[in-house]
Amino acid sequence: MTDAVGLIPAAGKGVRLGLPYPKELYPIIRDNRYKPVAQFVLDDLVASGVSDVVFVINETKHQLIGYFGDGQRFGCSISYAVQETPQTEGQSTSPGLAHALDSAYHLTRNRTVFFGMADTIMEPQGVFARAWAAAGPEDDVVLVLFPTTHPEKFGMVRMDGASRVVEVVDKPRHTSLTHMWGCIIWRPPFTEHLHESVRRSGVSDFARVLNDAVGSGMRVRGFVVAGGSYADLGTYEEIRELDARLRQP
Asked: Contact 131/144 with Cβ under 8 angstroms?
């Protein structure tokens, strides 16, 4: 896919884990081999035919650059975009996901974006390829959906009978919704919508950006990964849960 670009935000400080290295390099041991958690989403992108990938980083992520390099070892070309911390007085020092994604605007504009989080593991392998195969030419955005029993941690998705997204409910404490978005594919119109939201409207809430896109008439489709699972390794509790699952015979 010549117009496709992978987008992996990795600019977080990782303060909840307190590791001496970027959390994106947290070791996952499979078949007695080391594999950092961020390589899972990268491998899925490459397996889906995405050959250009952008990591959004902060100024401290030297070890991440050292491991992934230019991407040649992983079958792709990797670029890095830096997410600057706002210096405006009174503004949040955690600009949020929307700002991180827009930090790569100069590399993603006019392209189809395959976006996945660096500290997650999605199964089965090939979720991007499955979602893209199911997308229609009229779809501006495809939310790739996974079941979860922890809606308070994720962006929960409400769809109509035609699998069109009608609302994203961010981290609800109580909800009847059962599926969260785990990764997203979008076409250039949404890239421009995101850029306008962040740069001109000052919107930092990504759920609002998505809901505004729905409200503006963009076609946003939900694609449920059959038999899919999604692990977010943002806390030690989540790491222990994944480790216990991987060790099951």
From this structure: yes
Give the whole-angstrom CA distance, residue 29 versus residue 6: 24
CB 195 within 8 A of CB 212: no
Number of neighbours of residue 52 by Cβ within 10 angstroms: 21
The count of other CB atoms within 10 Å of the CB of residue 194 is: 24
Backbone φ, ψ for residue 131 (5° rounding): -65, -40
* 62-76, 83-97, 220-234: least confident range: 83-97
Question: What is the domain-level CATH number for residue 187?
Answer: 3.90.550.10
Q: Give the span between the Cα atoms of 66 and 81, in whole angstroms.
A: 15
Residue 90 lies in a domain: no
In whole angstroms, give the CA distance from residue 211 to residue 202.
Answer: 15
Domain of 113 in residue numbering reads as 4-11+20-84+97-239
Contacts of 150 (CB under 8 A, 6+ apart): none
pLDDT in tens, 90-141: 444 345 899 999 999 999 999 999 999 999 999 998 999 999 999 999 999 9
Token readout for 84 is: 């600057």
pLDDT of residue 14: 57
Q: Is 229 in contact with 122 (CB distance < 8 Å)?
A: yes
